Amino acid sequence: MFILTNGGENIANSKIYISYTSISTFRTCKRKFKFKYIDRVSAAPVKSPFLSLGVSVHNTLAEFNMLPKEWQTADSLMQLLKRHWVSDGYKNSKIEENFLKRAQNMLLNYCSERRDMGNIILCEEFLKQDINKNLILLGKIDKLYLNENGILEVLDYKAGYTALSKEEFENNIQLPIYALLTKYRFNKLPKVISYYYLVPNQKISIELTKTILENGIYNLKKVINEILSEKDFPYNSSNNCKNSCEYYNLCEAFNVKAN
Ligand code: SF4
To answer: For the chain, how are helix, strand and coil distributed in percent, rounded to 5?
Structure first.
């Protein structure tokens, strides 16, 4: 399915994971992409309240979804949140308490009127597939299930506040990654892909038509070819680097060598 013809010298001896996260990194800062996905420089991940909140909520929902349906209650959800709560990255206990409240509220809101009922196939699982000897397609699927209408649906939980427009959603590189990984694993394409925004308890769904899929695969191939053709991997520094990039201490943008 992926025939990549140009470039590739830069990763001749590497195996690169092509995922939503790695593509986002490439688009944000090519130097960071090189540190992380080509040179594989190990560095302690940056901790932040928002990351911890996201991990806590996702892990809670993963276990919750796997419970027998009669056990899927608000009480069990709160207990699971306690068990999966990640305390990293909070400056003090007051801030952590606020984030915990935020997580509790969004999950209780979700549980009061769920929009993801159906028969579960998998939850919070990494799927991967070799594309060629250098490239591996990788994605974490929050939930794959047969929805109440018996339709195969991939669902992605969102704990943040920013929602995509319909057009942004249709063109999001996550769509072809989810579709292809589901097809490789189950020999079946999902019919619907959804983003479930937990804060407002809203689910936005897109029917995976032939046009949307072909457009997505075209965009995916395009970005893969950009990665393979990139030679310099320039840095793209910003005021956020210090607090958001684990390679800050190694990056030439902030470490000018004296003559
Ligand atoms: S510190 Fe900033 S510029 Fe340097 S690699 Fe990280 S994100 Fe890129």
So the answer is: 45, 20, 35
Contact 172, 164 (CB under 8 A): yes
Q: Which atom of ligand 1 is nearest to the CA of 238?
A: 2
The pTM score is: 0.90
Angle at 58 between CA 167 and CA 153, to 5 degrees: 50
Going by alpha carbons, the residue nearest to atom 3 of ligand 1 is 237
Atom of ligand 1 nearest to the CA of 235: 3
Transcribe 20-35 into DSSP letters: HHHHHHHHH-HHHHII
Which ligand 1 atom is at minimum distance from the Cα of 240? 2
Distance 240 CA to ligand 1 centre (A): 9
Model confidence over 40-85: pLDDT tens digits? 999 999 999 999 999 999 999 999 999 999 999 999 999 999 999 9
For residue 109, how many other CB atoms are within 10 A of its CB? 13
Q: Are 7 and 229 in contact (CB under 8 A)?
A: yes
Q: With a 6 A CB cut-off, is 241 part of the ligand 1 pocket?
A: yes
